[in-house]
Amino acid sequence: MEALGHGLLPLGAVRTCQKEGRCQLIGSIHFLSSPVPSSLKSLKYKNNIRMQAVQEEYELKQMKDMAAAKKRWDALIREGKVKVLTPREAGYAIQLSNKMLLDVRPSMERKKAWAKGSTWIPIFDVDTSLELRTLSLKATNFLMGGWWSGVPALSYNKEFLSNVEEKFAKDTDLIVACQKGLRSIAACEVLYNAGYNNIFWVQGGLEAAEEEDLEREGPQPFKFAGIGGLSEFLGWTDQQRDAAAKEGWGYRLTFSARLVGLVLSADALFIGAQKVGQYLQVLRSH
Questions:
Q1: For the chain, first and last CA: distance in Å?
Q2: Helix crossing, 38-78 with 11-20: angle to 10°?
Q3: Whole-model pTM?
Q4: Are strands 119-120 and 114-115 parallel, antiparallel or unpaired?
Q5: Residues in a beta bridge with 243
Q6: 23-26 and 29-32: which strand pairing?
Q7: Which residues are catalytic?
Q8: Do the strands 100-103 and 119-120 form a parallel or antiparallel pair, or are they unpaired?
Q9: Of 90, 110, 89, 92, whose CA–CA distance to 101 is shortest?
Q10: What's the rounded mean pLDDT across residues 229-243?
Q11: Which listed site, 177, 190, 275, 276, has its alpha carbon 20 to 30 Å from 108?
């Protein structure tokens, strides 16, 4: 379940940093620093090897856990314990048979778009803890791609099941949805094991829904609810590219202008830094 809260950490970035010999280990986070003194290289090499072994073991455990979970989820569907619906079928079921839609997405996705009348109980949500380990995971998540994707570190909602039980009886027909379909199938397993036996899983998640499939509320289309970060700002996500292909050049020019503005801002900062450096050199020379 932990693997669904944050992505696997890519070893490539860690190994590159280790190879150049200019990383400093603080908890589980790597920060670039000045070159390591030769007297410390031997100790640092041993620490790096140990860190790499721990990291690989952690990634292997996550992959094994996900593989085992996928087998369980496939069995739930194959044995009919969880029924599969497309987003369009889910929309029909809600309209025609008054089935309840349980939205298990984290808050940053829910606030962008949601199905009208749905009940929101996240199975994972943004981790707001200030514990040292949590802060370390947040920093690692950001450095390893969160800045680009906009996806924050998430933690399992320990009150998920109790919150669902407060809202719905065990014989309720529940349609469970998330953004892409992965966390919702995990939620289906939790609910089935707790005694819910009328569970429907939205395959592909709300991201696979067309606008006419479900009655939507919120400022953005379902397809855009799961994107964020710099990639969203620049319009470089698959969802935005698909929209650009349909809407034409006007849509693309908006993000092209943003890219140009970002480049110019970075260039201005670089020039400013150069001028500050030159000014400091002049001061030192006097």
A1: 62
A2: 170
A3: 0.66
A4: unpaired
A5: none
A6: antiparallel
A7: 178
A8: parallel
A9: 90
A10: 75
A11: 190
Place of tokens 């998540």: 141
Question: Which residues have CB under 8 Å from 247's CB, separation 6+?
Answer: none
Q: Record the tokens describing residue 78, joined without a space.
A: 């194959």
- Taking each continuous run of H as one helix and of E as one strand, the counts in the chain are 11, 11
CA dihedral (11, 13, 19, 23) positive or negative: negative
* 81: exposed, middle or buried (Cβ count in 10 Å: 0-12, 13-18, 19+): middle
The identity of residue 53, as a single letter, is A
Q: Where are the beta strands (DSSP E) in the chain?
A: 23-26, 29-32, 82-85, 100-103, 114-115, 119-120, 124-126, 154-156, 174-177, 199-202, 216-217
Q: Residue type at 114?
A: W
**Chain length of the chain:** 286
> In whole angstroms, how far apart are CA 63 and each of 8, 56, 244?
8, 11, 35
